[in-house]
């Protein structure tokens, strides 16, 4: 929730039954507690969602808080007509539910009106989510080979930004990292192996580890080589591993953002001539698919990618599983 969206959400309240000041105080107190309890990306999503809801309420003359179930149903249908996917609409509903709970108000999203609206939307647009195009190992190698340039003596030269992007892309693949996880990696949490050129990095917190127990993530020798060179040239000894690079070629003090990571994947894919729409999630999808092709079990892939359920993972690897299934084996045995 943003400060600017709160007054709009309180518009239309019955001041005698639900004093706006009391609700505002509850929301501000909850926001302070939530900032310590939840990941930054989670609270950012809530703020964005409630801001969209507040803007819609202002345009439509609806009370933002407490919301009428009919208004939420209309809001969700309007967002669907604007092209929002079902997953986004469900997130909007969840954010509005949390908003009401934070204000100690009844949750209007649990009513039949809102439930039926979501079911109707699901029937009309389908529930299947778009999936990031995969960055498989073959694609990754192709990108790495395009980084930098060759000098007249035939030697490969790399700029600082080439080293960063090479290290970032390879680390993203090795660790099946989500964007937020990749950006959270710290220099001081990177460790070299005692026996070979590989390494590990401590992932302090992730989407499926909100308690912050942490996990050690394996990094291949090729990845560690790029990371060592990146850290040696930048002189970084602590803080986020992946930082912005100035157009002049120097290191910025600012860490990368989610948008920056998406741009790196997309730009490097284009330069390498890869006809895919790559994003910051592509390496996670690609590595999971490569593991499935190699015959790794679901349990092994889930452990590597820190999945708590098979739902998302099965979406990533369904084509591979289909090609390895009984029907495919039967067709192969029949010579067709």
Report what the structure shows:
The protein has 336 residues and is mostly helical. The protein folds into two domains: 121 residues, DNA polymerase, domain 1; 190 residues, Orthogonal Bundle (hpI Integrase, Chain A). The protein has 15 helices and seven strands. Helix 4 runs antiparallel to helix 5 and helix 12 crosses helix 14. The mean pLDDT is 85.
Question: What is this structure, in a nutshell?
Answer:
By secondary structure, the protein is mainly alpha-helical. The protein has helices spanning 5-10, 20-37, 40-60, 69-81, 86-102, 112-125, 137-146, 160-175, 179-184, 221-234, 258-271, 282-293, 298-305, 310-324, 326-333; strands at 149-150, 156-157, 190-192, 199-203, 215-219, 243-245, 251-255.
Which descriptors would you attach to this protein?
2 domains; 336 residues; single chain; 15 helices; globular; 3-stranded antiparallel β-sheet; 7% strand; mainly alpha
